Amino acid sequence: MSDAQQTNVVDVYVRLSDDDRSDMREISFKIPAKLSQKDMLEAGFSIDGHSAARAVMAYTDDVADQYVPLQDALRDAQLELIGWLGQRGYAVNFK
């Protein structure tokens, strides 16, 4: 789907975790009306009222045997979300 066809925009928020852990970020957004909570859960998000949320942390990639820093893990999660929502007709606006 081209950008011109994606008229629905989802505002996505990236914040420190509630406990102010500097090694974790939370990605959250209001669940679009056309997507179900089941869709969100299957995509790896937790449900909090009408919002979907996902924690992102640095990790060790066991396959590549290398450390993935927070900024890379966050970028990967953001790109994954852009693609996933894009396939469903939504553009992403990070706030």
Characterization of this structure:
The chain has 2 helices and 7 strands. The chain is α+β, with helices and mostly antiparallel strands. It is globular. Strands 3-4-2-1-7 form a 5-stranded mixed beta sheet. A two-stranded antiparallel ribbon has the order 5-6.
User: What does the average pLDDT come to?
Assistant: 89
Largest sheet: 5 strands, mixed
Strand order of the largest sheet: 3-4-2-1-7
Distance between the termini: 23 Å
How many helical stretches?
Answer: 2
The share of residues in extended strands comes to: 35-45%
Q: Which stretches of 5+ consecutive residues score pLDDT under 50?
A: none
Radius of gyration: 14 Å
Helix content: 25-40%
The helix-and-strand class reads: alpha+beta
The shape, in one word, is globular
Number of DSSP E strands: 7
Q: From N to C, what is the helix and strand string?
A: EEHEEEEHE
Features:
single chain; alpha+beta; 5-stranded mixed β-sheet; two-stranded antiparallel ribbon; 2 helices; 25% helix
Give a brief outline of the structure.
With 95 residues, the chain is an alpha+beta fold. Helices cover 25% and strands 39% of the residues.
List the SSEs and their pairings.
Elements: E1 8-16, E2 24-30, H1 37-42, E3 46-48, E4 51-57, E5 59-61, E6 66-68, H2 70-87, E7 90-94
Parallel strand pairs: 1-7
Antiparallel strand pairs: 1-2, 2-4, 3-4, 5-6
